[in-house]
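Bumping with the actual sequence this time:
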Amino acid sequence: MSGGSDRVVLIVRLSALGDVAMTVPAIYSVARCYSETSFKVLTRRLPARLFVNSPSNVTVITANDDEIGSMTGLYRLLRRLAEEGVTDVADLHNVLRSWIIDGYFMARGRRVAMVDKQRLERYRRHESKRPFVERYFDVFKRLGLGAADTFDGVLPHVADGGGCRRVGIAPFARYKSKTYPLAMMRRVVDELSVRSDVKIFLFGGRGTEADELAVWASGKDNVTSVAGAGVLESELSLMATLDLMVSMDSANMHLASLVGTRVLSVWGGTTPDCGFLGHGQRREDTIEVGLGCQPCTTAGGDGCRYGDFRCLAAISPEYIVSRIEEILVISD
């Protein structure tokens, strides 16, 4: 389908890593549908590396930190964007920085569509919100670029452990309300590691996360920590070989989704009803207690009204292990 060979759509999503990952299925699907339209994704340096094997009409524009950290920097960025021939703006971020970019192009007669973050609805805790991936498709539709979801991954899913089940575990999240107690997740790793038919890979960042996971893997032949060990592209390649990823409501859930890996996700302060379940993931593969106070936040936070994060503490390590084994159909 043709959207017009003279159209240049600027797609704005500056952060964070997991949020940018959620835009990829919509961007790839729309770009493949409108092969004569040019799509230019404006994002930061790290998430720019997510756009692996992108359609030929998708290019990435990297914004430097100083360009989005001040009005002076934004002015320099706008001058750079003015040279891109932009005809439309798809704002998939909807924050102050992106509003300034929107306003700049609107003042020049360009078409602008913005994602609906349902900010007014976020306090209606027990109402299910539309998945963000669907909302991203809505933005393109309002620009006359409606398309079906045809995303099939940035890399092929190639899990084949030769009889050994390959499980990734990503225990960290940005906020405390999203992070399963580390001592309890370590018990999950310990219980799984006694099985000779399971190979476990631990995912995390550099520094303290890598140090923590190195301790978890110590002395276990079938547990490997890859925290902070490689670049983003190599992590995606490894995730594509997994039979299952165990993750919080975090970037790793979305990274695994980009390569077609099934995810067992653990939810606390946020729930799948907030709209952040990974692309192509199953609701039955989520773990949540279902307390009356859930969700207490739509995007995460470091506080708990009770001070004990009971929504996470109430989930036993044994239950998580049982769910992993159920999904993998691991036999004794």
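The tokens above came from a reply further down the thread. DSSP finds eleven helices and eleven strands in the chain.
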